[in-house]
Design a protein that fits this description.
183 residues; alpha/beta; 7 helices; globular; five-stranded parallel β-sheet; TIM Barrel
């Protein structure tokens, strides 16, 4: 696994659309070139919340990754949001992201977990399966306390210890937890 240095800015750009609702691939390339020209930008996170990743067709997702990759070449890593439901479809999404030029994946919890929670061990199984299927370096995505998809410290440490997991995006929005969970 290649080591990625993400110390700096890693913006999560929107996915631009045309007036008729089609993905605007030319605008993606311009946006990527502009963001890539800013001093301190260390990567781009695409197909996340602002990137509409869950709402795009699979071929659109691939083309979005490809366009951002083309816009920055090999100068910056492209981090693809891995957003699909279910472990196996997320693993397949990660395989496609690698083929399209992604350098890493930001793994979202299954959206069903947001309201209903998850079974013990399910998050660890999700990360393990995604990495084993794709070889894509992964970022743990910690969701806010207001959801049932937030991970306790034990689960976070378990995920962080898995092969392929190299970073964490903490969206917990509860500063009291930071005292114990972020050294």
């Amino acid at each position: 696994m290649k080591t990625l240095d993400l110390r700096g800015l890693v913006p999560a750009p929107v996915t631009p659309f045309t007036r008729d609702g089609a993905v605007d691939y030319a605008a993606i390339k311009r946006l990527g070139q502009w963001l890539g020209s800013i001093d301190g930008v260390k990567g781009l996170t695409v197909l996340g919340h602002a990137g509409e990743g869950t709402f795009l067709e699979r071929d659109e997702q691939l083309k979005v990754i490809e366009c951002f990759r083309e816009s920055v070449g090999d100068r910056l890593p492209i981090i693809a949001g891995i957003t699909l439901e279910g472990t196996q479809v997320a693993a397949e999404e990660a395989r496609r992201a690698v083929k399209a030029g992604a350098s890493a994946g930001l793994v979202y919890p299954s959206h069903g977990w947001l309201r209903f929670g998850y079974q013990k061990g399910a998050p660890q199984d999700r990360y393990r399966a995604i990495f084993e299927a794709s070889g894509l370096p992964l970022i743990l995505f910690q969701y806010p306390d207001a959801t049932k998809a937030t991970y306790n410290l034990e689960t976070q440490l378990d995920i962080a210890a898995l092969p392929g997991v190299f970073a964490m995006k903490n969206g917990v929005r509860n500063m009291k937890r930071w005292d114990t969970e972020i050294p």
